[in-house]
Amino acid sequence: MSERPYPLLANAIHDAPRVKIIGSDGQPHEVQIFPFGEYGTIIRHGLIREISHGLSKKLKRWQGQFDYLVDLMPGGGRSGLIVALDCGVYLTTGWVNRGGLLYKTMLDDEFRVKVGGPHGGELCFRGIEANDRVVILDDVIATGETMKSVIRAFKERGPIIAGVLTIVTKGDEYKRIEHDFDIPVASLMNLDERGKIIGREN
């Protein structure tokens, strides 16, 4: 049996603590708290290198098919800057609307997307125009609700989604995204519903 290509990532997934939450959809969800995710902790240099090199390698497959990378903050944020720098591409970052005075004002080029699933809330974006070609980056696709909401909103606005890039897919929802939206999804690790590693990169 050959060695896994991302041993430090595999260890981080295996060691990730699990918590149970009631999502914005009112349903219970078990969530793994990955160090590279939005509720992460210290990320060691070797793990940063594995993740960034793996994502960069996958993004380069779509070279010439997209204009810039769209990073779904906060989940994709840690990786987005590194990958964009490594690949020499532009990056735009979304952000979470957490309320407060700043979020009451919308800039002319801003739009907002309501997202469901375990996290819920509203993601905000700027500078994304019709006919732009983009790759969307996030840390994890599990229920797929956040990504599907963003894809639908982008399709209404007009940019062309060349692909979706993620560190981890959990379950089969990424396949539904590929089928329903005809958009390729690439990840470094595939997990089953319980969080066990079942496959390598796709």
Automatic annotation (TrEMBL):
<dbReference type="InterPro" id="IPR050118">
    <property type="entry name" value="Pur/Pyrimidine_PRTase"/>
</dbReference>
<protein>
    <recommendedName>
        <fullName>Phosphoribosyltransferase domain-containing protein</fullName>
    </recommendedName>
</protein>
<keyword id="KW-0660">Purine salvage</keyword>
<dbReference type="GO" id="GO:0006166">
    <property type="term" value="P:purine ribonucleoside salvage"/>
</dbReference>
<dbReference type="Pfam" id="PF00156">
    <property type="entry name" value="Pribosyltran"/>
</dbReference>
<dbReference type="InterPro" id="IPR000836">
    <property type="entry name" value="PRTase_dom"/>
</dbReference>
<dbReference type="GO" id="GO:0016740">
    <property type="term" value="F:transferase activity"/>
</dbReference>
<dbReference type="InterPro" id="IPR029057">
    <property type="entry name" value="PRTase-like"/>
</dbReference>
<keyword id="KW-0808">Transferase</keyword>
<feature type="domain" description="Phosphoribosyltransferase">
    <location>
        <begin position="130"/>
        <end position="180"/>
    </location>
</feature>
